[in-house]
Specification:
alpha/beta, seven-stranded parallel β-sheet, globular, binds NADP nicotinamide-adenine-dinucleotide phosphate
């Protein structure tokens, strides 16, 4: 099946994690492209401020760790708009360094928000996406979901997101719903300030939320099933699989230079 180009204008998008960082930049970008955007997060006052900026952005408070809350979101989108053409699963948290028993709660929370939150949103929106087809799902993974570097539970949550996306990109094709794993590298945001990275030699690798928003719009238009942003991180991913010893040497240096999330 070939993927037809997709014109976002006039269509409906749901963006989770829209109260800051990549999600907020994406909500703005998609609204500028002519979409009606349902901006989702827990901090309602932030969403209201965002919605006040743009007539096509509306705020909806939901917690992706709470299935009832996610079901209410899907019900509201169906009732208010009758369609969901684009679902951007972006809500996520950092953390998840897994050194021992004391880190269990943090690790489980990281998996719950980043991986299971995406699963909950996909479950709630499956029918509406299929009814709205052609439709797009963008799952915001991470380069840390392609190469095991940084906090271990965070990497696990993102490897899970990547695997989920890869399998669904094949099986949901028959519904005319494309599924993209969109994997950012280091991006400076509130939750991921990249303080340590910016102090060291990896500083030029730090990107902006708007770079990711642009890649998300491109993936929506093209129907791409995988995208790394900034693109130069892709070479690192290829190295991981094609030249493992060289990768491990570089990854070890990177982990020492910028492995911390704060
Ligand atoms: N920045 C990076 O370097 C980087 C790199 C690779 C991947 N990513 C991924 O990009 C995504 C966005 O991160 P960001 O950098 O933009 O971080 P951010 O600025 O901290 O934004 C995270 C967003 O997720 C929302 N969120 C957190 N827990 C939630 C929950 N339980 N229910 C609903 N929303 C929730 C937050 O809103 P509330 O607190 O208001 O709920 C916030 O809007 C994440 O999935 C992250 O893993 C980031």
């Amino acid at each position: 099946m070939t993927t037809e180009p997709f014109d976002p204008a006039g269509k409906v998008a749901v963006v989770t994690g829209a109260s800051s960082g990549i999600g907020r930049a994406t909500a703005r970008r998609l609204a500028d492209a002519g979409m009606t955007v349902v901006a989702v997060a827990r901090r309602g006052e932030r969403l209201e401020r965002l919605a006040a900026e743009h007539p096509r952005i509306e705020a909806h408070v939901a917690d992706v760790t709470d299935m009832a809350s996610v079901d209410q979101l899907a019900t509201a989108v169906r009732r208010e708009h009758g369609a969901c053409h684009v679902l951007v699963n972006n809500a996520g948290v950092g953390g998840g360094a897994f050194e021992g028993r004391e880190d269990l709660d943090d690790a489980l929370r990281t998996l719950d928000v980043n991986l299971l939150g995406t699963v909950r949103c996909l479950a709630a929106f499956t029918d509406l996406l299929a009814e709205s087809a052609p439709a797009r799902v963008i799952n915001v993974g991470s380069v840390a979901g392609k190469v095991g570097i940084g906090p271990a539970a965070y990497a696990a949550s993102k490897f899970g997101t990547v695997g989920l996306s890869e399998a669904l990109s094949l099986s949901w094709r028959r519904r005319d719903v494309t599924v993209c794993q969109l994997n950012p590298g280091y991006i400076e945001t509130e939750g991921f300030p990249q303080t340590q990275v910016k102090r060291g030699p990896l500083r030029p690798l730090v990107g902006k939320p708007e770079d990711v928003a642009e890649a998300i719009e491109e993936a929506i238009r093209s129907g791409a099933t995988e995208r790394t942003v900034p693109r130069f991180y892709r070479g690192f991913v290829v190295l991981r699989h094609m030249a493992t010893p060289a990768y491990r040497a570089i990854a070890g240096r990177m982990a020492r230079a910028g492995g911390s999330r704060d």
